[in-house]
Amino acid sequence: MLRLRQISIVAVLASMAVLSACRLDMQVQPKQNPLSRSDFFADQRSERPPVEGTVARGQLHEDSYFYTGKNGSTPGNYMPFPVTKEGLERGRERYNIYCAPCHSRVGDGNGFIPSRGFARKPPSYHIERLQKAPLGYFYDVMTNGFGIMSDYASQISPQDRWKIVAYIRALQLSQSATQADVPTGQAVPSDPPQFRGQPGSGATLPVINSENNSHSEERK
Questions:
Q1: How many CB atoms lie within 10 A of CB 215?
Q2: N or C: which end of the chain has fewer CB within 10 A?
Q3: How high does pLDDT run on average in the chain?
Q4: What is the 3-state secondary structure (H, E, C) of the chain?
């Protein structure tokens, strides 16, 4: 019995020694600290450059036009994906957040910031030069900035930048549309929307009563 007890104690002590050694190896393992010197490589740098051709996750930009708005060095004038109503609504939302403070919600350059004394008023989207500008030009400006305007590449995803481009073009069309551009049967100007309750305040958004608006369309 005594011998069995001695064997058990030895086994426990041996197990503790083995386990503590494993923990020690995990805590104090052979490794290089960041940017430390290494005698293993000829240049003595522990930090190694990526293997040639390495692409970071999410950075495989095979469609260069989608990510630059250019064909070579020339801005393109087409959308890289079909424009839908949902896409325009998303573009309007992003435009009102990031662009409208300077360019205004109608794109005339009279936004909140210029109206408070900002020295450089942005140009109107409705001048001839920007009406004729290719779509890729607007994308490139958002991606890389222009003049004193900083880039928005980190704030706005490439997909949303293109949706803003589509909405800018819609704004331009809205300010220069003619009677011939109006769909048959649609009143000009359109009937004002009917709001559910109060139209809203600066802290709340208005809620449009779609049921009443649909009835007014049916009466036409």
A1: 11
A2: N
A3: 84
A4: CHHHHHHHHHHHHHHHHHHHHHHHHHHCCCCCCCCCECCCCCCCECCCCCCCCCCCCCCCCCCHHHHHCEECCEECCCCCCCCCHHHHHHHHHHHHHHCHHHHCCCCCCCCHHHHCCCCCCCCCCCCHHHHCCCHHHHHHHHHHCECCECCCCCCCCHHHHHHHHHHHHHHHHHHHCCHHHCCCCCCCCCCCCCECCCCCCCCCCCCECHHHHHHHHHHC
Neighbours of 198 (CB within 10 A): 9
Domain boundaries, the chain: 72-177
Output the pTM of the full model.
0.65
Assess contact for 124 and 108: CB atoms under 8 A.
Answer: yes
d(Cα 212, Cα 193) in Å, to the nearest integer?
A: 9
Mean pLDDT, residues 5-10 taken together:
70
Q: What is the pLDDT of residue 199?
A: 64
pLDDT exceeds cutoff 90 at 145: yes
CATH architecture of 72-177: Orthogonal Bundle (1.10)
β-pair partners for 195: 208
Tell me: the pLDDT tens digits for 148-162? 899 999 999 999 999
